[in-house]
Amino acid sequence: MKKGLVMEGGAMRGIFTCGVIDVLMENGIEFDSAVGVSAGATFGLNFKSKQIGRPLRYNKTYCNDKRYCSVRSLIKTGDLYNVSFCYGTLPYELDVWDVDTFYNNPMDFFCVATDINTGKAVYHNCINREKSRDGQDIKWIRASASMPMFSRPVEIDGGLYLDGGMADSIPLRFMESQKCDRILVIETQPADYVKKPQKYMGIIKLVLGKYPNMIKTMKDRYKMYNDEKAYIREKEKAGEVFVIRPSVAPNINPTEKNPDELQRVYEMGRAEAIKSLEGLKQYLA
């Protein structure tokens, strides 16, 4: 039996996922394969490196640090979340990502990015230790979380990539393609959440005018997202997947700078995971 883990993004809603995966780690629950999208990748990688509490800790510590996230960084570099700090200084010097454990852990860890030329999702397996710093794997993780309009496209091997959530927000179908028999999906919105059409298509067309396929993907994203939510509910009702999600909307700012709010949403994730723990263990058995 092969077990899979799917982690939705959603900017700082991803702190909910942090609470869930910490409970999973505390209870020794493991998977053969995981896929993370956007914040589900940047925060979820700590499941593979087995670092309980790390993403909550560094977000609470640096959420008000201008080196981490600021309009100044957006104006100067084109990235709201400063690349050199978020993907260099922080994980390799200040709150160290355990690269050894990450790469020694046999679990596959996929991150999802969107190819801005095709508008399609790309799934990268972070398995190359030689490219862990300033290389291919960390670039793919960064691309997965690079929000359109607030980040520069990430160039990898001649391609350009942005936030994976634009093309595949909750990649259950991808995890099914990995031949997983038991799949846990961590969502960051309640079951009845319905995404609405993008309000700012005029600005998006202006900024991404050279990339018509990406524009179409962003225009149609709400349809894709709602279809994925419906598919997950269908599979959940049939007992084919297990889902942990918020019972109420987290209602957290995408770039939240209040540590208390981050803690609140983290505790929501922990509470839902603890409530679901025995059922999950039975499902995975």
UniProtKB/TrEMBL annotation:
Q: Which GO molecular-function terms appear in the entry?
A: hydrolase activity
Pfam family of this protein, just one?
Answer: DUF6363
Q: Give the GO terms filed under biological process for this record.
A: lipid catabolic process
Keyword Manganese assigned: no
PNPLA domain location is: 5-176
Q: Where is the active site?
A: S38, D163
Query: Keyword annotations for this protein?
Result: Hydrolase, Lipid degradation, Lipid metabolism
Which Gene3D superfamilies does this one have? Cytosolic phospholipase A2 catalytic domain (3.40.1090.10)
Q: Where is this motif: GXSXG?
A: 36-40
The source's domain of life comes to Bacteria
Q: Quote the InterPro entries the UniProt record gives.
A: Acyl_Trfase/lysoPLipase, DUF6363, NTE, PNPLA_dom, YjjU-like
Q: Does the keyword Transport apply?
A: no
- DGA/G, short sequence motif: residues: 163-165
Residues spanning the membrane: none
Instruction: Name it.
Output: Predicted phospholipase, patatin/cPLA2 family
